[in-house]
Amino acid sequence: MSEDLRRTALHERHVAAGARLVPFAGFEMPVQYSSIKEEHVAVREQAGLFDVSHMGQIHFDGPDAIALVDHLVSCDVATLGVGRARYGLMLAEDGGCIDDVMVSRTAEDSLFLCVNASNVTACWDWVRSRTHGDVRVENRSDETSLLALQGPAARPLLERLASEPSILPKRFRLATVSIDGRSVLVSATGYTGSPGYELYVANGDAPGLWNRLLETGHDLGVRPAGLGARDTLRLEAALPLYGHELDRETTPFEARLDRFVKPLERDFVGAEGLARRADEPDPRRLVGFEMVGRGIARADYPIVRDGRTIGRVTSGAPSPSLGKSIGLGYVPRSSSGVGEALEIEIRGKGVEARIVETPFR
Amino acid sequence: MADYQIPEDLSYTREDEWVRREDGDQVVIGVTDFAQSQLGDIVFVELPETGAATEASAPFGTIESVKAVSDLFAPLTGEVVGINEALEDAPERVNEDCYGEGWLIRLRLSDPSELDGLLDAAAYRASVAERES
After folding, report:
1. CA-based nearest distance B40→chain A, Å
2. How far is B45 from chain A (nearest CA, A)?
3. Cβ–Cβ < 8 Å for A141, A53
4. Closest Cα to residue B17, out of B68, B64, B65, B76?
5. What are the tens digits of pLDDT across the range A191-236?
6. Which one of A27, A177, A331, B101 is CB 3.0 to 4.6 Å from A311, fit for a cystine?
7. What's the whole-model pTM score?
8. Element (H, E) at A14
9. Under an 8 A CB cutoff, do A298 and B69 touch?
10. Measured between alpha carbons, how far is A2 from A87 in angstroms, rounded to an integer?
């Protein structure tokens, strides 16, 4: 593997577990340990432990921190209570997406954004160029490790390990928990569609925590899971992936993320751009579909109706939990009704598909 | 090098296919243990229809894992006289038993001398070792 790839603090754990490592966003990351399907099913039925330390964390501290972040993201940060997390989009002035982010407020005057690994530099540059007021901004991506523990066994496992199990946070909340004397910021959030947690720790504490979770969780069926399963899980939950459903040209409205955008009158970066684009006739709209004919839809395959290309697939894969092939893609709003028939062009041939409700069932 | 099964009685290609000679000028073709391991969980196999022609080194179908689509390259020129229809509902057989229940197609060869151009087990083992290092 190239010498230029970075490694997380858990790299040696992945090698020891026999993981297949691949380059991703400049890091050497585990795509699978045993099999993508097995790891996917493990998350749905027991729990999977993911190393997502390649993701980035940008911290804001000071009296103007809340106001600054509220201005920089689409979701309402002014009403985000201490110890709570909220999903939003960081937009460019024209309303296109720079990244999708999780905003977490850790104290009265402190919060951080968790950003995609592929966008850490872009987000950091963007934030720095717009920072003003009494606030200190720090990129702590390189010192922070992030473990995602996802599945029904996640809570029972943390209850065994936390020195104070009663403070384990409820969904979309955060709490600092002590595990084996290590301080862990536990966030009841995730990217799989199954209940679970994201655990922020210092790099030095990551390997010990990883080992402990797997040892103690062994009889609960907890196992390591890679980026391959992470992708099939989030697809079943119809969660967008930047670079596929979201990119610099796409607005949150096209991606059906309206509920993560506060009223445009609130004056945040991108609000004006979104308002201008509201007049577009028949804009694109993200839909979920399932294959009816035989074939697997993949990113960039054309979506066809009546012999004309009307859109493109953004993500697609066989769903291990559903036993069918599913996908996400963009079509004109006028063609986006649930139940409508489509064709996906797979290697030159149209294969029948149908728009369905999301998340997929 | 990991321990991949490479049966001595088969012939192979550098594209990780195996060929088993049968009576007359027929062969059975599949993908090797190394191939199925590299691909991961196989979720879809697209095979030609019976009666279709294959041409040595040209693609004759596709094999898909969860994350990727890979071409299948014909090792030999001929006519497809049989396909493994069980793979339509159970593509995972390629992972479970690539030399047996996971076979792909049966060909009637147009030019049996092409068989001489295939690799034997030792040569294929070397080809895998080279790529693994």
Report:
1. 7
2. 9
3. no
4. B76
5. 999 999 999 999 999 999 999 999 999 999 999 999 999 999 999 9
6. A331
7. 0.93
8. helix A11-16
9. yes
10. 34
Residue A143 structure tokens: 């010192």
Rounded Cα distance between B74 and A81, Å, is 62
E strand or H helix that includes residue A206: helix A206-217
B43 contacts A318? CB cut-off 8 A: yes
Eight-class DSSP state of B31 = E
Provide CB contacts within 8 A for A41, sequence distance 6+. A320, A321
Q: Which of A80, A65, A97 is CA-nearest to residue A269? A: A97
Nearest alpha carbon to residue A134 among A49, A229, A66, A50: A66
Token digits of residue A193: 């569609």
**Cα-Cα end-to-end distance for chain B:** 8
What is the C-alpha to C-alpha distance for residues A51 and A210, in angstroms, rounded to an integer?
9
Q: Is the torsion defined by CA of A124, A128, A133, A139 positive or negative?
A: positive
> What local confidence, expressed as pLDDT, does residue A165 receive?
87
Taking CA–CA distances from B95, the nearest residue in chain A reads A35
Pick the closest to residue A57 from A128, A138, A177 (CA basis): A138
Measure in Å the smallest separation between the Cα of B24 and chain A Cα atoms.
34
**CB of A321 less than 8 A from some CB of B:** no
Summarize chain B as % helix, strand, coil (round to 5): 25, 35, 40
Q: How far is CA A56 from CA A67, A143, A240, in A?
A: 21, 10, 17
Q: Scanning every residue of chain B, which has its alpha carbon at the shortest distance from the alpha carbon of A38?
A: B41
Nearest CA in chain B to A32: B40
A348 touches chain B (CB under 8 A): no
Average pLDDT score, chain B: 95
Tell me what the mean pLDDT of segment A29-36 comes to: 97
| ipTM score of complex | 0.85
Q: Is A294 on the interface with B (CB under 8 A)?
A: yes
Mutate to test the interface with A, among B67, B85, B95 (most CBs of A within 10 A): B67
The answer to whether A318 contacts B44, with C-beta atoms less than 8 Å apart, is yes
Q: How far is CA A119 from CA A127, B68, B73, in A?
A: 12, 24, 38
Q: And the tokens for A2?
A: 């190239």
DSSP per-residue letters across B76-103: S-EEEEEE-GGGGT-TTHHHH-TTTTT-
Identify whether the C-beta of residue A140 lies closer than 8 Å to the C-beta of residue A59: yes
Structure token digits, residue B88: 């339509």
Inter-chain touch A232–B66, beta carbons under 8 Å: yes
Chain B environment of A348 (Cβ under 8 Å): none
